[in-house]
Every structure is written in C-alpha cells, then in structure tokens.
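I had to read the description of the data format several times before I understood it. The format is easy to grasp once an entry is in front of the reader. For illustration, here is how one protein appears when written out as sequence plus structure tokens:
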Amino acid sequence: MYTFENYLGLSRDTRSLATRYGCACLKAYLDAPSAYGMKKKLFAEDEQRRHSSEWLNNSSRFFNKKEQGEPVIREYVVDDIDRRLNAEFSFKTLLCHPLWQLIDNAQPSTQSIKEVLVNLPASYVNLLYREDADGNPAGRKKINGYKLIDRTDIHALTCWIAFCLESTEPKKTVLDTPQLLALQYLLKIGLTTPFASIIVEFYNYLNQQFGYLYANQVMPSAHYAHVFHMPDGNLGYLPMRLISAGPLGIEPVLSFYQELCRRATQLKLVPDTKEGQLCFYNFIRHTEIQKLIDSLFLADNHPTSLKELKRRISIFGQH
C-alpha cells in the first residue's frame, strides 16, 4: 500500500486532484452540504459546545481550502479525520490511492504500471494477476474488460488507465477498445459519483501528461472522433479514446450523456434514480450513438424498455 509520504511526493497538480476528490468523497459520505457541514459532523456535540460558532466556522476553512485543491501537509490531521469517522471509509486511503501514483508518472514503464496495479485492493490484484509459487503476483491474466465496466470505483478506473498506457502502438484497422471503454467508464463515474468534482480537470490532466505517447500515431479519423447528428439536427462529435495528442473537450460529452439519460427516464426506460442512471450509462455505446438517438428521439413508436431499445438498435445495425 502507498503511504502518506507517497502522497506528499506527488507533483502539486496530482496532489491537488487527489485532495479535491478525497474531500468530495468525504462530503458525500457525511452527507454534508458544505465544508462547514463536514466539520460540524466530524465534531461531537460536546466538543462543539466547548467552542464558539465562530471557531467552528473558522476551522471549517481547512475543508474549504482542500475542496479547492490545496494539498494536505500534516499526516496527523488526516489521521484525526479518520479517527473521528471510525468507519470503513478512509480519507487517508483516498489520498494514498494507487491512481494518483499512476497518473503522476508521465513516463510510465511496464514495471511502474505493474507496481501501481499490485497495490490495488486484493480482489483487483487477484482479478489481474496469477500467483507464483510464493503467492506473489506474477503473470497477468487475460482479462475481459467488460468485467470492470459495471463498477463505479477508482480501482477500476486505475485499471482502465493502466490498460491504455500499456499499449500505445497505433491500431490502424480496429478501434482501440481499451481506450474507448476507459473513456466511457470515466464519463459514467464522472456523472454518478463524487468523481464529478474533478472529472474535467482529471481528463485534461491525463491528456496533458500522456498525450505525447500518441503524438506520432496515424489513425482513421473515426478512431479518434465519431460524428453524428444531434436530436436537433446539428452535428456532434464524440471522442473515441480517453487519451490522445489532440483530445476533444469532455464538457459537451457530459452534457450530451445527461440529455440522453433525461430522455430515457422521460420514456420510463430506466427509473429516475442513481441506479437508473448507472444502468443507462452502462448501456451507452459510442459506436451505436446515432441509432440510440434515432430510437430515443425520432422514432414514431418509442421503445418501452432497454431490452426493446437494444433490439431496435440491433435491427438498425443490419441495414
């Protein structure tokens, strides 16, 4: 496992992302509306009575600054937060997660990527690696990426990014599936989890760090961006890979995903809940996006279930 010293050794930009994400998760876990609310929930009532309301308000500035990306400096402060939580949730574990080590290293190697992956939780290590005679991770298993697609944690995100960085050779005849699935996974957790607090900056940072690895790749334009007609008739562009030398902006894609999901809930294909959103975002495939739009917005008779929607998309694909 990585330690707080590893967190402190990260570049400031990476530490800032880690800190903002950690605070977003802490706020969600505490169900607190603000930095003040986080501080109030972490302090017992008798502690709050011993201090003035002004003190509590001033002391919440720590969380205000961390939400804005100011890195944590003192480990004992993080330990005190976890002590007060007294739960499986750990602020420190989020700050020290292998993901941040992975994206901080702008010159990844096979060995550096493996070091990150073997520091993931045991369930992920067992999914990725075979064991040697001593029980240590050895050769990589051939894993079906779809085993990870339904998840919503940053352990799986770490795997997806690692898969992208492991293979940077251009694929001239087929789509780069790990890149596409990694992008779709990022979009999903960026819309349904606390990762929403950093998704745009995270995506931009990834491409800033690793875009050079793909600078000399020559690929068909359709492997870089998918052109389609929006419901209003205007042209839209969907990125087809997570990392590239000239990435498309991700903000319009997030908005478009939300528009599709709103339409799906309006048609009662999925419930208007977080679970419904996850179900629908898992359903989206960029290669089928035009058929999906036509079925949701332009069909005379709209589908009544995701199963029916999938059947229509499949039929469209035969013509």
Notes: The first strand starts at residue 129 and ends at 131. The first helix runs from residue 4 to 8. The chain has a mean pLDDT of 89.
